[in-house]
Design brief:
This protein folds into 3 domains: 1-71 and 509-540, no CATH class; 131-250, Aldehyde Dehydrogenase, Chain A, domain 1 (3-Layer(aba) Sandwich); 255-434 and 489-493, Aldehyde Dehydrogenase, Chain A, domain 2 (3-Layer(aba) Sandwich). 40% of the residues lie in helices and 16% in strands. It has helices at 2-10, 14-31, 41-66, 93-98, 114-120, 145-157, 174-180, 182-186, 197-205, 218-226, 232-238, 266-281, 303-316, 327-337, 361-364, 382-395, 409-414, 416-425, 490-493, 511-523, 530-538; strands at residues 77-80, 83-89, 103-108, 134-138, 161-165, 190-193, 211-215, 247-250, 255-259, 291-297, 342-343, 350-352, 371-377, 402-406, 430-433, 448-449, 465-466, 475-481. It is globular. The two termini are 36 Å apart.
Length: 540
């Protein structure tokens, strides 16, 4: 049956061929631009491609199990520096070819052995008895695939049937999801419903609902669990929730992008400026994982040059608006706090180039819009700077969903212990090294969720992991790596790969064509599709 989801996007005939384009086009129009706009690539990437990539990841693992094999290769699980790590990407030969140089490891929690990591993977399919349950998925309004991927996780990783309430912001996606999940709906495994906060409250408290998953903000979680009346805070302090059902969540936060000083060339500065701007401007910043604070070395000669490249890119990107409800008010709050904030778009694309106080709105609150703040930290050496940056990210910024660390390969080689320590100590569910951590949301093999340790009384970025195709347990975090530079310049910087400029970059000139072809290839890989896909990717 899972194959039906894949074919609903992959079929090259009749209505099925039009389905992914229609889904992506619905998102483009809702955000205020046409389906042929350069921005429309993100509606393919975060919609049809994310759905088919995650489906393909699940199929890869389930087919291994059906063939009598373990979900994980034994060689993928090993001990490094006293911790068990699981290599989860690349998982197939196609992964190696299409995202050459991208790698991902899942770090298991302290105390977990290699044998336990292997034995507990995909337990639903290997003798562990699940509990029949009806799960409520409260859909997110910002990225098209989120609701569908949360449904897949509940169905296949947790063995639960699903009622999915569409978010009013993107309820227009309901007919597209009903098309893709048609066979699931027929069999009574999935139901879609609409409604606002009142409908959500009714469903969360309904005695027929056994478990809940929500993607949103900590305020959404707290309203559901503790209520919104005058007694809500007292309930939270006393741990007397209005509902006491299994509850998983992904709730965002203030995500940092930490830049380590190093011997960057002008080309490196331009490329990484594109990287940083992408991590902010994808979806106009309406992502729970959007970079909101750029951490830069105060005394590095590359800091101002990098900021100048960022300014240029913000000015040159095609126009668009911050479409998500409440964005204008949140950007106004940034302007009120920073009257001199730079504006590089029409009433949007704010840059605050030097934040000096930790009670700043950009540090304390998730803005969920196109505002980027810069914090400059001292440090005479990369090691000293990294210690301060890690402490700032862990102890000052709210949230633990994702962080990005950008470090030149030569700097990492010269300061290997310091970089290794920083990667180990950053308390985030996904850490991207030379890769925007948001990419981890897309791959399917990479578990997605907050760093463990939150409770319902202090929910932070949420509890639990989704998008976990290997169905691993005891997860601490995912560490995702990508080349510092695109091919062929990696030969110079010391991290050679075959990857060109990534198609998810907002600066990619042929991103729309590339991602459309990538979607159809991922759903039904054939060698005959590769030349056209590579031709589009290389022109970007």
């Amino acid at each position: 049956v899972l194959r039906a989801v894949e074919l609903g996007i992959a079929d090259d005939r009749g209505p099925a061929r039009r389905a992914p384009a229609e889904m992506a086009a619905a998102g483009s129009r809702a955000k205020g631009y046409e389906p042929g706009s350069p921005w429309a690539a993100e509606d393919w990437m975060g919609g049809p491609w994310a759905l088919v990539q995650n489906t393909a990841a699940l199929l890869h693992v389930l087919r291994r199990i059906a063939a009598g094999r373990d979900p994980l290769d034994a060689k993928a699980v090993r001990e490094e520096y006293g911790r068990i790590r699981v290599d989860v990407f690349p998982a197939t030969g196609w992964d190696t070819l299409l995202l050459n140089g991208f790698r991902a490891q899942v770090w298991m929690r302290p105390g977990v052995t290699a044998e336990q990591a292997r034995a507990r993977a995909a337990g639903e399919y290997r003798g562990r008895q699940g509990d029949p349950a009806l799960a409520l998925v409260l859909g997110a309004g910002n990225v098209a695939a989120i609701t569908a991927l949360d449904i897949l996780h509940k169905l296949y990783a947790e063995g639960q049937v699903v009622v999915a309430k569409m978010n009013p912001v993107n309820a227009y996606l309901r007919p597209h999801f009903e098309y893709v999940f048609a066979e699931f709906v027929e069999r009574g495994w999935v139901r879609f419903v609409d409604g606002g906060a009142d409908a959500g409250t009714y469903l969360t408290r309904h005695e027929g609902i056994d478990a809940i998953h929500v993607t949103g903000s900590d305020r959404t979680h707290d309203a559901i669990v503790w209520g919104t009346d005058e007694d809500a805070e007292q309930r939270r302090r006393d741990d007397l929730p209005l509902i006491d059902k299994p509850f998983s969540s992904e709730l965002g936060g203030v995500s940092p992008c930490i830049v380590v000083p190093g011997p960057w060339s002008d080309a490196d500065l331009r490329f990484q400026a594109e990287h940083i701007v992408t991590s902010k401007m994808n979806n106009s910043g309406h992502n729970c994982i959007a970079s909101q604070i750029l951490v830069l070395p105060r005394d590095w000669d590359g800091t101002e040059r990098l900021l100048d490249e960022i300014r240029r890119l913000l000015r040159d990107l095609p126009p668009r608006t911050d479409y998500y409800p409440g964005a204008a008010g949140r950007l106004d709050a940034v302007r009120e706090a920073h009257p001199q904030a730079e504006t590089h778009g029409v009433d949007c694309r704010l840059l605050v180039p030097d934040i000096t106080h930790h009670d700043d709105v950009l540090i304390t609150d998730e803005v969920f819009g196109s505002a980027l703040g810069v914090v400059r930290l001292p440090g005479a050496t990369p090691a000293e700077y990294l210690r301060l940056a890690v402490d700032f990210a862990n102890d000052t910024l709210p949230g633990t969903l994702g962080a990005t660390l950008i470090v030149h390969p030569k700097t990492e080689k010269a300061h290997r212990a310091a970089v290794r320590t920083a990667i180990a100590e950053l308390r985030y569910g996904t850490l991207g090294v030379n890769c925007w951590s948001g990419v981890g949301f897309l791959l399917g093999f990479t578990p997605w969720g907050a760093f463990p340790g939150h409770t319902r009384q202090d929910i932070g970025s949420g509890i639990g992991f989704v998008h976990n195709a290997f169905m691993l347990e005891d997860i601490e975090k995912t560490v995702l790596r990508a080349p510092f530079t695109p091919a062929p310049r990696g030969l110079v910087t010391g991290d050679p790969s075959l990857s060109p400029r990534p198609p998810y970059f907002v600066t990619h000139r042929t991103a729309l064509t590339t991602v459309e072809r990538l979607t159809r290839f991922t759903a039904a890989p054939t060698l005959t599709k590769l030349p056209a896909l590579f031709a589009a990717a290389l022109r970007g």
